[in-house]
Specification:
The complex is a heterodimer of chains A (about 475) and B (about 500). Chain A contains 15 helices and 12 strands. By secondary structure, chain A is of the alpha+beta class. Chain A has a 6-stranded mixed sheet, with helices on both faces. A 6-stranded mixed sheet of chain A has the order 9-10-8-11-7-12, with helices on both faces. In chain A, helix 1 packs across helix 4, helix 9 crosses helix 15 and helix 11 packs across helix 15. The longest helix of chain A is centred in the N-terminal third of the chain and has 20 residues. Helices cover about 40% and strands about 15% of the residues of chain B. In chain B, helix 2 packs across helix 8, helix 10 packs across helix 13 and helix 10 packs across helix 17. With about 500 residues, chain B is of the alpha+beta class. Classes of the chains: A alpha+beta (about 475), B alpha+beta (about 500). At the A-B interface, helix 1, helix 2, strand 4, strand 5 and helix 3 of A face helix 1, helix 3, strand 4, strand 5 and helix 5 of B.
Chain lengths: ~475, ~500
């Protein structure tokens, strides 16, 4: 890709320039409100409609509140494998037909599985809305996967793992980082899962998963775009109303115990071309009031070439090719991570010191007013830029409803960011960036591995990073 | 995408993109199937209105008003892509674009970063095959600042030496990452070999050798010659009024001095079977690229090639996806593309697969290509692939940037509004006979270039048995500056590309 070798635009900044700190003032625009209409069917299905007639296009999203954190031990990767199988046929739709139909009308469709939810979506010419609602209803009501299709699709998912995780440079970085950051919570494992667990999955697991999680009382249907709401609600009642309610959804995800001492790991990996240093800190769950200040901190650290970590580590010191501090917001407590990918002959120790200085700076000195204002402007503009398509708006709606638990928050979050003060940022940095809550990972090229350890260990396979955990 | 973004995105998306698609269902179906609900009548689609104006210096201005959200996108396209860079200076177009935003006569690098970050906007520069791109995305209350920054970096960059050195260090580290990425190696190697010595095929981001040699003067000279108003187009799209935008753009760019237009060398290559394996012994997958020279944007076969591509591999319902992924589970994806440019670009089909199934997957790709040459496309398949393209058109013009992209492309290649308005009917008119004729004239499955990047030892025997002799290049000896990809001398050990100590 074109910009592969360039530093990321997301990197970071410091406010002093030849003219001193620059303040642009607060932007004079606001993202348009997303107007929604909520409805619930008797079987528990939540329905949220958002009209937008600017182009004759509609978007349908079905959010199932199940993700990789709901997987049983030994079945990692299953929620995602299951997502693939949802395209393999249902009572009235053959294995090829869902995608064939959408393709034939020029529609776009896909699905994504993350830690917390699985999302199916279609964007298409709006005159086909009832047909698409019908397609989604059919696979909510029934699933019809042959053994042959199951096995072939499992191979596809294994290739996906090779393509996304095992082949590309840094592909395994986050797999190692999360494995060290969490000891108990299933966030320890990426949604793609492990090869061994994928191999262990059976078609019986598939049927059980559908019965347990793919039920109206665990689903939210979002329709955004060009449609007539009364007619659409009638269609939804027709096609979804008679799908039986499922049992209460099991929610027994193991909790991550409070981390009481720093953890450090050095890993050597063949697909790590340059050394990388990562710090992670545990932070609260999505919707928690402290996340606003943490997100502001992430912008100050990482957003743009004037951000703190870019300015310091990439631009001034030239230690790093990339550096940043970002949030991974999840339904259960998530992660704030600092990272640097090293450049030239600089050492992980140098990078660690530089990152640590910036952590401490956030904890000891209030951020300046121009920095705070800049971060808030970035949050405003991101919301303006990221809500242009019916797909974008549908996702914002679904996230507010399914993960934040209140669809009205789709229009309220920005105001919360605007209230954040320099003291708030100081306080959350002190609260969450505690040494005992930190996990440090040094991910190093395999070539840097010291020769001949004292006790011979079996050589790891080429692409399995060998990890050595230090107490 | 930068590597860490890849990691972060992978984390966010991990698992899920791209659905399962397969063919047969074995299980019995209920006797009575539901009848799927029929569609409502289709609505007419019109390409959004836009206004054009040309300045005396040749710069063309376009305004597309879209008042749905308070955003404003400024996109400038300049005839300053890599095709204009000398072969030994691979990476020059990229470098010039990158360094334009790292200092001007009135602003330092950090002042530019401060100015755009303070309003939550983005300022990006890049170079493509033929064009340099400078784009600004801001909220619509920042029109003045946006134009000021855009014109400053385009008209008055100073290319400070220390900024070039900084960029060079980063780029050399980035090249080390690319050098370990089989997907990059296969694609870049394919492009280099398929185009002979034509600059379209040179590596966009350069090589360790070419990047080390670039000087400040190279960049300043490239900027001086290529960043010119004639042949450039500025699109202003979003929550803006045409009159105001024209007036302010004229103020910002009116004094830009005309330059000399430069010809693009002719692409002339005869297809000839060649198989090259880039050997990366620790690879778990093999990246597969198959193709030849394709066609120019203005080629009379352009519309037919889009339909052919949709049948072959442009979509997840196309044949490559169906045969490689759906039927055999050999890969997560398989696709094809025509890179259309002023001169003919490449035609490329590709996939990746676990090492053990390398030769099988390559065979499937070749069979799909041969089959499409041998037999006419069934009527239903042709109709569905055409409606795929025409139905997707309204989705592609949903956002201001989507509209701008279409307009810039049409104008760059010498077309106008009518071309965009008639796009769907042109595609719709393509017949099965035209597709067959196109395939027989333009697609040569048995003379195509094949580039593989993977663990050669594991599949060498099978490959030779199936397709005959091939060349192997160890990954450490790949040099994209050389016409045969083979480094003349080993890469110098003290370069940052090899950080191991």
């Amino acid at each position: 890709m074109l910009n592969r070798t360039l530093p990321p635009a997301l990197a970071v900044g410091l406010l002093l320039t030849a003219h001193g700190a620059v303040s642009a003032g607060t932007l004079k625009v606001a993202p348009p409100e997303i107007k929604v209409r909520e409805h619930q069917l008797a079987n528990g299905l939540k329905v949220i409609l958002h009209e937008d007639h600017s182009v004759p296009v509609a978007n349908v999203q079905v959010w199932y509140h199940v993700g990789s954190k709901d997987e049983r031990p030994g079945r990692s990767g299953f929620a995602h494998l299951f997502e693939h199988l949802m395209f393999k046929g249902s009572a009235n739709v053959g294995s090829e037909e869902h995608k064939a139909f959408l393709s034939s009308i020029g529609g776009r469709y896909n699905a994504t599985t993350d830690f917390d939810r699985t999302l199916y979506f279609e964007t298409f010419p709006s005159n086909y809305l009832e047909r698409v609602l019908w397609l989604e209803a059919d696979r909510m009501r029934s699933l019809n996967v042959s053994e042959e299709n199951f096995l072939s699709e499992r191979d596809v998912v294994k290739e996906e793992r090779r393509q996304r995780i095992e082949s590309p440079p840094f592909g395994r970085l986050f797999e190692v980082v999360l494995d060290k950051t969490f000891t108990t919570h299933p966030y320890r494992i990426l949604p793609i899962g492990s090869m061994a667990d994928l191999d262990a999955a059976t078609i019986a697991d598939v049927r059980e998963f559908h019965t347990t999680y793919y039920v109206p009382n665990n689903a939210t249907l979002v329709v955004a775009g060009d449609f007539e709401p009364e007619e659409t609600l009638r269609w939804i009642e027709t096609w979804y109303g008679s799908i039986p309610t499922g049992k209460p959804i099991p929610r027994n995800v193991p909790k991550e115990p409070v981390q009481t001492a720093e953890r450090r790991t050095v890993a050597y990996d063949a697909n790590t071309p340059l050394p990388a240093v990562i710090f992670t800190y545990h932070m609260p769950e999505a919707g928690h009031p402290d996340l606003y200040a943490l997100e502001v901190a992430a912008n100050i650290l990482s957003n743009g070439q004037s951000s703190r970590l870019y300015r310091k580590m990439v631009y001034d010191q030239q230690i790093a090719l990339q550096a940043g501090g970002q949030t991974i917001v999840l339904e259960d407590p998530g992660v704030f991570f600092f990272f640097a990918i090293l450049q030239g002959d600089h050492t992980v120790e140098e990078a660690e010191t530089a990152l640590q200085e910036e952590v401490q700076r956030l904890q000891t000195t209030p951020v300046s007013l121009p920095e705070l204002e800049k971060a808030k402007n970035q949050l405003i503009s991101q919301e303006v830029f990221q809500r242009q398509t019916v797909q974008d708006k549908g996702e914002a709606i679904g996230y507010a409803s399914v993960i934040l638990g209140d669809v009205s928050r789709v229009n309220k979050e920005l105001a919360q960011f605007q209230k954040v003060t320099a003291d708030d940022v100081l306080r959350v940095a002190q609260t969450y960036f505690k040494p005992a809550s930190r996990t440090v990972v040094h991910m190093l090229p395999a070539a840097l591995k010291p020769a001949e350890p004292a006790t011979p260990a079996p050589a790891p396979p080429a692409n399995e990073p060998k990890t050595e955990t230090q107490p | 995408m930068t590597p860490i973004r890849t990691a972060v995105t992978a984390l966010a998306l991990l698992a899920g993109i791209s659905p399962a698609l397969a063919q047969t269902t074995q299980e019995p179906k209920p006797a009575m199937k539901q009848t799927p609900p029929p569609p409502k009548p289709a609505q007419e689609i019109h390409f959004p209105a836009f206004e054009e104006k040309a300045l005396p210096n040749g710069l063309r201005l376009v305004v597309i008003e879209q008042h749905e959200t308070p955003s404003l996108s400024l996109q400038l396209l300049v005839p300053a892509g890599k095709v204009y860079a000398p072969a030994a200076k691979a990476g020059l177009a990229d470098a010039t674009a990158a360094l334009m935003r790292e200092g001007t006569q009135t602003r330092s690098s950090q002042q530019i970063a401060e100015a755009i970050d303070a309003v939550g906007g983005t300022l990006d520069t890049a170079a493509g095959l033929e064009s340099g791109f400078v784009s600004v995305l801001v909220t619509s209350d920042q029109l003045d600042l946006g134009l000021d920054l855009l014109s400053d970096v385009v008209l008055r960059p100073t290319f400070p030496a220390e900024e070039l050195d900084r960029w060079r260090g980063q780029t050399l580290s980035g090249l080390a990452i690319q050098q370990s990425d089989p997907g990059y190696l296969a694609t870049a190697g394919f492009q280099r070999l398929v185009l002979g010595d034509h600059p379209y095929g040179m590596p966009s981001s350069g090589t360790v050798e070419s990047i080390q040699k670039l000087t400040r003067d190279d960049l300043a000279a490239f900027h001086q010659r290529r960043y010119i108003p004639n042949g450039s187009i500025l699109a202003m799209v979003g929550d803006v009024k045409a009159l105001e935008a024209f007036a302010k753009a004229e103020r910002a760019f009116g004094a830009w001095k005309k330059g000399e237009e430069a010809p693009i060398p002719e692409v002339k290559v005869t297809p000839k079977r060649r198989i090259v394996v880039i050997d990366k012994p620790d690879a778990v997958q093999t990246e597969i690229r198959v193709g030849e020279i394709g066609l120019a944007f203005r080629d009379p076969d352009h519309a037919t090639s889009e339909v052919y591509d949709a049948i072959l591999g442009a979509t997840p319902s196309s044949r490559l996806f169906e045969e490689v992924r759906q039927k055999r589970g050999l890969s997560y994806g398989a696709n094809s593309e025509f890179r259309l440019a002023m001169q003919p670009g490449w035609f490329l089909a590709g996939t990746n697969t676990k090492t053990e199934s390398t030769v099988e997957a390559l065979g499937v790709v070749l069979d799909v290509l041969r089959d499409l040459n041998a037999r006419p496309v069934p009527a239903l398949e042709l109709a569905q692939r055409k409606t795929y393209i025409t139905g997707a058109f309204p989705l592609e013009i949903e956002t201001p940037d989507g509209i701008a992209g279409k307009v810039l492309e049409a104008l760059k290649f010498g077309y106008g509004k009518e071309y965009l308005e008639t796009y769907r009917s042109r595609l719709d008119a393509v017949t099965a006979e035209q597709v067959a004729s196109f395939a027989s004239r333009r697609i040569h499955p048995d003379q195509m270039l094949i580039v593989l990047a993977g663990n050669a030892k594991a599949f060498a025997k099978d490959l030779e048995a199936k397709l005959g002799p091939f060349e192997t290049i160890p990954v450490s000896e790949v040099d994209l500056l050389q016409p045969d990809l083979r480094a003349k001398t080993p890469v110098t050990p003290e370069t940052p590309a090899k950080t191991d100590k």
